[in-house]
Amino acid sequence: MEPTIPWYQSAIIRQQIAQVVVALTALFGVNLGGLDVDATLVSVFAGIAAVIAVWTTVTRIFKPAPNLSATAVRKEVAMVKAGDIPPSPTGPGTQRGFFRTALLACVALASAGLALVSMSGCAGTKAAYGAAESLPDTAYVVAEHYAAVLKEAADIAESPATTPEIRDALKAADSAVKPYILGDDTRPGLRTLAARYIAVKNAQNQSDLQAAVNAAVLELARLINAVKSARRS
Amino acid sequence: MNPTLLGIVGLRAAALALALAGQTRASNSLYTLADAAEAGIDIDLHMRAVADKLKTRSANDDDWADLAARIEADSDRLQGS
Hints:
The complex is a heterodimer of chains A (233) and B (81). With 233 residues, chain A is mainly α. Helices cover 71% and strands 0% of the residues of chain A.
């Protein structure tokens, strides 16, 4: 039997063609009407292309890879003779599996889902920060972000499935960030600082509010990480 | 439809199809991803509502008062759990 197969029988070549098609689709764009994916629609295609790349890698690792050309055959024979690689039969002329329609549909669906989730997972949050046109509004968005994360943290903590360690981690993260948002005996909260700035728009009040927002965001990030860890467990 | 919801539906559909095809490990992985995405969607929907509000007007004292009350209530709920 000829120790090569036609190019169109190679799963890897077909996957690469699929990837090129996806890339071309992203290049030309697709009009999805009212679907709110804005200009970042290209991320969907980038996600699909990335999944196909992973898919190709898995194919190369776990599926037979018969030679596609006489040149490849000659090189393989030479490498075997030189002892660089062990002798390996290239198998029959057909490389089966992987590019089946049903599996392709599954992979496309999963990758599109992954891309949409990863792309738009924080679209609302980005929109909120983007909608804040003044420093006091940014402070308000940070506080609302904290409120939303805190609500989820409380829901997780109240779940019977949550371990005491996770519960304690969530409580500690909340205790750390709350004073930065609402204020305590040692520092004013965002609301107070925002009100001061709105009343008197001077450099000092602006600087104080900006510093408080920055500090609150840093602490909020720790609470968000604690919630993410709790979700994964 | 919200793109995140669309993504979650896609993940769950693919997970179901893979489960029916007997690919249980891949199916379980996709279900886990969908669950994680679903858990975070409440925060994102909340923030989208905040964005919509700020597009029409700035936050006022009533907004802050309402926000502070929600924070205190949820913080109490968390610390008391």
